[in-house]
Amino acid sequence: MNEFEQDPQTKRNDVLDAGMGFVVSFVFFSLIFVIATIVELVAR
Predict the structure, then answer these.
(1) What does the alpha-carbon distance between residue 23 and residue 19 come to, in Å, rounded to a whole number?
(2) What gap in Å lies between CA 24 and CA 40, rounded to an integer?
(3) What is the 3-state secondary structure (H, E, C) of the chain?
(4) Model pLDDT, residue 29
(5) What is the dihedral sign for C-alpha 19, 23, 25, 26?
(6) Cα separation of 5 and 26, whole Å?
(7) ∠ CA 31-37-43 to the nearest 5 degrees?
(8) Count of alpha carbons within 13 Å of 27, Cβ hemisphere only?
(9) Of 1, 4, 14, 41, which is least surrounded by CB within 10 A?
(10) Distance between CA 14 and CA 20 in Å, rounded?
């Protein structure tokens, strides 16, 4: 076992961090899509 496994900086569950990363990136790309859709509708 290496030294980093013996003394981790955080004991949080990685699933929570991965889920938050997914949600944040999903919201970001959704926001870009919504803005592009609005710009396209206004430009008509």
Answers:
(1) 6
(2) 24
(3) CCHHHHCCCCCCCHHHHHHHHHHHHHHHHHHHHHHHHHHHHHHC
(4) 98
(5) positive
(6) 31
(7) 135
(8) 6
(9) 1
(10) 10
Looking at this protein, which amino acid is placed at residue 10? T
> The tokens of 26 are what?
């999903």
Tokens of 43: 């430009």
> What is the pLDDT, as a whole number, of residue 38?
98
- Per-residue pLDDT tens listing for the chain (44 residues): 778 778 777 778 889 999 999 999 999 999 999 999 999 999 98
